Amino acid sequence: MKNVLAYTIWIFFLISCNDVRQSTTNNGHDTSALKNHVSNDPRYAVDAIANCSTWTFDNAKQRADTLIKYMDKTLEHADVKFFCAFPQTFQEMQDLFGYDPKTGAAPLYSYPEGKNVIKYFASLKTIPNALYYKKFIDICIDGVWEADHITECFGFADRLQHDTKAACESLSKRSEQEVRSVFRFIMDGPHPDNEYNDALQQNLIPLLTEQNPKLAMLFSEAYRELMAETDAHRH
Fold first, then answer.
1. Domain contains 87
2. For 37-62, how does the pLDDT look when each residue is reduced to its tens digit (9 = 90+)?
3. Structural Rg of the chain based on CA atoms
4. Residue 13 lies in a domain
5. How far apart are CA 133 and CA 137, in angstroms?
6. Can you tell me the distance from the alpha carbon of 82 to that of 78, in angstroms, rounded to the nearest whole number?
7. Is residue 5 part of a domain?
8. 196 inside domain
9. What angle do CA 182, 185, 190 make, to 5 degrees?
10. Helix, strand, coil distribution of the chain in percent, nearest 5
11. b/e map of 75-111 (b: 16 or more CB within 10 Å)?
């Protein structure tokens, strides 16, 4: 009886190991790491996103199609897969949502489709904070206003106001240059000297000061630099 039980356990172990080794491919992406986890396991997103680097795209259109697909929350682990497919740099955001005078509109340049994809990313709440804000900050660094979807730091200011502690913790790990770049992109535009930016500064400075006074100082510096450049262009 003991031998039968031991044999049964051994067979189950071999089958389980084989399941873990199996990979499934979707749009050219290895999704095995995304498949073999329990969705309510808190380690799931961390382990899965650690394998985001295996996700590659032949072109921006393929990335766009993947993002649209995983906005469907009925799909297994849709948010994690959407997050993995989302761009990692400002340049990749331009390639996906912007407009190039030579090559024309990017795959998600159209409205409201492109705006909805960005808003979906900006409202994600299922991704661990450290991973989520790392990517959010990465896509904002060196960002500049280009109208349409390439504007207002892709909604990062809203997260700063409503999830201040977590956003500031991630910002605090970045260089001063990177942080100023992010803050500047929040306020950048054709006429940054406006009531919206004035109100944003008045609202954010106290919140940033409470979490990290240095971040508040960097935001003020970015604001003053942007206003000084605006004044210079007027003369």
1. yes
2. 334 455 667 777 767 877 899 999 99
3. 22
4. no
5. 6
6. 6
7. no
8. yes
9. 170
10. 65, 5, 30
11. eebebbbbbbbbbeebebbbbbbbeeeeeeebbbbee
